[in-house]
Amino acid sequence: MPRYRAVVTDLDNTLYNWVDYIVPSLEAMVDSLVATTALPRVRIVQSLKAVYAKYASNEYPFAIQESEIFAPYEADFDSFNALVLRPARRAFVAARERYLRPYPRVRETLDALRARGLVVVGLTDAPRNAAELRLKTLKLDGHFDALYTLPGYPLPSHVDPEIRRKDEAGLYRSRTEVVELPLDAEKPSPAGLARILADFGWKGREVIYVGDNVKKDMPVAAACGALGVWAEYGTYVSEEYRERLAVISARAVTLRHVAEETAARWPLAVSSFAQVLEVADGARWVAAPAPRRPARRGRRRT
C-alpha cells in the first residue's frame, strides 16, 4: 500500500455546502435591492444574472455596480454606495454568517491529516477573492498548507472606499499561501493538480484527491494518477434549492459551481469528509449504484 504524502481537496460542496449558503445570501441581497431601489424584482434579478453570466460566476463581488441598475446613478457613486450597495452587502453578509458552515468534522479532519504528517492543499475553481474569504469566514484558512484558485477579480473603479482600504491592507487575504492558476486550469483540466504535484515534488500515487463532482473532479485525479475520492455527500442538493439558484444563475454558471444530478458514479466514495482519514489508512468504500428507473411501458408492436 502506498504511503500518501498529501491530501488535495476541492472546497465548494466538499468542505461545506456552497448551495445552502449562496442561495439565501443572494436572495437576501436581492430583497435589499428591491427595498432600496423600488425596482421590480425581476428586473433586478435579470440585471445581476447578466453580470454573473459575463464573469461565468455567481461570486463576482461587484455585480451590483456593474449592472444596469447602477447606470442612472453613476454620476453620484457615494449616494448609491450609502443607500443601495452597503445595505445589500450587509444583507448578503448576514445571510452568509447564518448559513455558511463547514460539514461536520471538517476542521478536525484537516487537523488530524496534518498531525499525521500529510500536507493539505485546497484546489478550487472559485476565484481567489471568494475562496480566500470563505476560508477566513469559516476559520479554515489556518488548516491548509496551500490553496490553489482561479484568478481573483480586481477592484473596479467604483468601489466602497472602505473595501479598497481593507484590500490594500490585506485584510481579505487568508493566512494560507495562495497560488492563482490560469483560467484554462479550470477542472476537469488536470493542469491545477499537475501544478501542485510539480510545485511540491510529489508523484500522483502519493496524493489523495477529494472532490464532489464526478464529472469534473474525478477525471483530474485519474489523469494525474492520484487516488480519487468522490465526496458523494456533496451532491445531495434539494430540487427546491436547485430551482431557486436557477432563478439568478445562468445554467452554464450553475454547472460551474454545482454537480449535476447524474447516474455517473466513482468507485471510491465517502459519505463524510471525516472518512478521508480512513481512506488514508487503506479503507475503501464503493459507490452505490444509481437507482434503476422503472422501464417505460409502451405499445407492443405486432
Count of helical stretches:
12
CATH hierarchy class name of the domain at 6-17 and 101-280: Alpha Beta
Helix content: 40-55%
Shape: globular
Strand content: 5-15%
SS-based class: alpha/beta
Taking all Cα atoms into account, the compactness measure Rg is 21 Å
Q: Largest beta sheet: what is the strand line-up?
A: 4-3-2-1-5-6-7
**Main sheet characteristics:** 7 strands, parallel
* SSE topology string: EHHHHHEHEHEHEHEHHEH
What is the tally of beta strands? 7
**Assigned CATH superfamily of the domain at 6-17 and 101-280:** HAD superfamily/HAD-like
The second-level CATH architecture of the domain at 6-17 and 101-280 is 3-Layer(aba) Sandwich
Q: Looking at CATH, which topology of the domain at 6-17 and 101-280 would you report? A: Rossmann fold
What gap, in angstroms, lies between the N and C termini?
Answer: 58 Å
Average pLDDT works out at 90
- Uncertain segments: 292-302
Folded structure, characterized:
The chain is of the alpha/beta class and 302 residues long. The chain has a domain at 6-17 and 101-280: HAD superfamily/HAD-like (Rossmann fold, 3-Layer(aba) Sandwich). Helix content is 43%, strand content 11%. It has helices at residues 18-37, 41-55, 63-66, 77-99, 106-115, 128-137, 161-168, 191-200, 218-224, 239-248, 251-257, 276-280, and strands spanning 6-9, 119-127, 146-150, 178-180, 207-211, 227-231, 269-270. The chain has a seven-stranded parallel beta sheet with strand order 4-3-2-1-5-6-7. Helix 1 runs antiparallel to helix 4 and helix 1 crosses helix 10 (239-248). The longest helix has 23 residues, at 77-99. The chain is globular, with a radius of gyration of 21 Å.
